[in-house]
Structures are given as C-alpha cells and as structure tokens.
Amino acid sequence: MIGVIDYGVGNNASVHRMIQRVGGSSISVTNPDMLSSVDKVILPGVGHFDAGMSELVRHGFHDGVLEQLTHRQRPLLGICLGMQLLCHSSEEGSRPGLGLVNAHVVKFRFEAGSTLKVPHMGWNTIGAVRDNPLLPISHDEQRFYFVHSYKVVPGDPQLTIAHADYGGEFCAAFQKKNVFGVQFHPEKSHRFGMDLMRRFVELT
Asked: Which residues are the active-site residues?
C-alpha cells in the first residue's frame, strides 16, 4: 500500500490514478498516524516552497515524522515541489526544508540574451547517470513532463541519479538510500511515467 500525502498542495488525484494504472494500491494520508499503515510514501507538490512547507507542518508532517519513516526503510518519493521540500532550503522562500537530502534549491538563471524562459515547462529528455531502482541507464530516449522555475542542486553530486538539460545540466532525480526525488511529473508523463511508477510500486 502506497500512502500519498495529502496536505492541500499537490496533484494527488492524478498520482492515485497512475498508481492504480500500474497495478498498485494507494490511500490518501492526511495525518502522520496514517503512515504506520503504508509500505511506501509519495510526497507530491506544486506551487511555492514556503507555502508547501507551511502546509506540511500544519498537517503534522514535519521533518522528524518523515525521518522516522525513512529510518524504518520505507521508500519515500518526492515529486516536483515534493522533491524540493526534501532539501535543506530554497531560494524561493525563507523557511527551512525537511532536510532529508543534502541539497538546496535555486532559481534558473540564464545569460543575457538567452531565449530560454522560466518556468521550464513541457517535455524534456532525461539521462540516468548511475544505477538506481527507478530510472534505467539506457540509450533509449526517456521523456518526462516538467513545470518548475527552481532546480535542485545536491551537495554531493553522487546523489543525482538522472540529469536533464535546460540551459545546462541540472538534477532531474536524486536518491539517498530509500529517499527519492524527481523534478518532473511522472503522473503526467504517459508511458515513461508509468514505467517509473511501476518500479516504485514494485520496490521492496
């Protein structure tokens, strides 16, 4: 059973549908007590960093709660803003993040005259850079749907499991033991998103 944290800041219905499409089962987790009844957890999210952290804390999902979850070796996947909330901090706000991953979040910046726009929105290819359970290292194209103005910068490059390019390489996905984050939206990424979600569902 996968628990999808519902703190009012996310595209939860689409995440549930994707889990069901790949043969998984899910429930909405609205308070920390429900975490004891799930095997894996997804933290979705869209919007502003500080607003997301405020709602997480208001619903009781502070850093200690999710840290205890990861100590019990239950896989945790952050999606888009959810990935960023797993980090220490963000230039988008002043609140501290959950700090489960040694990383910070910075805004996309481009040289004068660049035609690239912020947010980075639409389909982009990613490339896995090391072995991991979610994204295979492959010469075949893997395409995912992105919508974000800020990018994750890991303190240790070895945390990155996949890159994408938008005015330069950036971290599209990371892994720290059983904690995963993806900057893109697998629930909007058709067969590529289904493949990733299926692998997450099948994690043991």
From this structure: 80, 185, 187
